[in-house]
Each structure stands twice: as structure tokens, then as C-alpha cells.
Amino acid sequence: MYEAIKNFAKQFAFEPVVENAEKLPHAEEFIVAGMGGSNLASGLLKIWKPELSVISHRDYGLPHVSEYALEKTLVIASSYSGNTEETLDGFEEALKRGMPVAAIAAGGKLLEMAKQHGVPFVQLPDTGIQPRSALGFSIKAMLKLMGEEQALAQIIGLATLLNPLAYEEAGKELVNRLAGRVPVIYASSRNFPIAYNWKIKFNETGKIPAFCSALPEANHNEMTGFNIAEATRPLSQKFYIILLKDADDDPRVIARMDILAKLYQDRGLPVVEVPLQGANVFYKIFSSLVLADWTAYYIARHYDVDPEHVPMVEELKRLIALRQTK
Predict the structure, then answer these.
(1) I want to staple 138 with a disulfide (CB 3.0 to 4.6 A). Which of 41, 183, 234, 265 is the partner?
(2) Which structural domain, as residue segments, surrounds residue 274?
(3) Domain-ending residue, one of 134, 160, 186
């Protein structure tokens, strides 16, 4: 895992190639069907281009879309391993419904099916890393299938501009704050996919509970769960609040974040502000996520757990497979 984080920026030098490109339609809307780390990139694309019409589908089958939308929607089935049960089901459903479909995978059944049916696909490098660590590969593959050449030209610069090692010490420092606590990550609605990625990294790499939410919605419900009384203090005292602050957010949201920090601190809750910074939106996104990677990695080290593998996920898959054979 350490090497995967250290070398993360090199993924942006990857040049995705669309096989069966002549069958790739010009689409106005997209459904990205994928689970876990294989579908993290789709939400991040909405930060870069808020008007992008993309549905992140994390389930069996496909979301319901109108017959009119069928004509202009491209389904992108994304599975790093190529063997994700839910994603394969969505891919097959798209074929049954006659929807335009493409695939992203490093191998496995998804790649085999894409070749068998002659649909467009991008094969990712099979480097042996975990799907959550392959975010650079997957976002470039999605941009390629979406025809976003301008974004691809911009994001390739991260291969040289982004230095993951520059964020390692900051990650260690965050661990000193978070040790023994449960992180709750807040961001604006626009930047919520970044907060969600932080949560996933704490869960999968750090092997700890973590939660995330967006402002202003959390000001209307979630924060009241921390209005600490003596009877509820034991429930709240294990949490640590992380505020992902972005100077480009709506000033009203920034003000809400400042006030929320004060409200929490007045109630004895620890709060840390983590600024989102960068020369462009892609740098802002991925520098924050590299910091999240280091923090989660050293959280795992703190608790003496394996930061790489996800044995509980594998156990669940084995139990599902066992049930299906009965």
C-alpha cells in the first residue's frame, strides 16, 4: 500500500485506449455502474464538471431511465477486477435492454464479455493494487469513454505536478489527532464526493468506522445528534470532525462551516479544518485524496492492521458464493 500511494501520480500518465471505438456513441448522459473503488471516479467528475449528466449506480441491474433517455445514455460498467457481481449484472442488463454500453476493467469476466459482444472497452493496467488505489487509471478511462479530451489533456499534468510524498507528514499529523476517534468528514454538497472518498479510505485502508456528510443539509438534521447532553456524551465523545474547506465554495456554505465548527467545539467536540487547495480542480481533488490515503495508511499502522487487503469483503463474497451453490 505504501508504494501504491507513493507512486499514485504516475497513473495520470496512463494513456487509455478504447477498443471497438467505432461502436462508441456520442452520448449526452452516462450511467456508471460499479461498486466500491471502481465507482469512486464518477462522483469526482461532477466536481470537475457540475453540468455533467452522470448517475453513479451502485447496485444490481440499472436505474430506471425513460425510453427517451435510452437513446442518448451510455452505460459504463466499471470493475477493476472485472468480476464484480453487481457490475456484471448491470452490464448484462444493458445488453438485454439494447442500451449503448462500454466497459472498464483490468481483466476478468467483464473484459471477456466486452470482447465477446464487441462493445467498446478500456483495459486498465493490472498492477495488483486495490481498486480504491487505481483512481487515476479509472478516471482517465471514464474521461476517454465520455469523449472529454480537454479534461484528459489537463489531468495528465498531475503525473508531474502531484507529489504524493509531500503529503505524507501531514497525514501522520492527522493520525495523532484521530487516534482513538471515529472520523466524521464534512464538505460542501459540491465537494461531497471528496468527503465520501475520505470515508472509504478510512474504512478500507484504516479498517475503522468513518462517516461523511454534506453542508448545508447536515445543518438541518445531523448536527443535532451532537447536541450533547450528559446522557448522550458517551455516544459523542468518540467522534472527530474533519471539515474539508474550499475557498471556491458558496460563501454561505463557508460561513455555515465556520459556525458549525464553533457549535461543535463549544460542545467539546474536536474539529480540524483541512483546506482543499490547488492550481486547478483536478489538483485540488487528488491532493486531498492523497492526504486521505496517507492518513488512512498510518491509521492502519497505528492499530496494527493490514492497510492493503479487505478480508471482510472477501469473506462476504465467499459466503454469498456458498449460498448460491446450495
Answers:
(1) 41
(2) 162-303
(3) 160
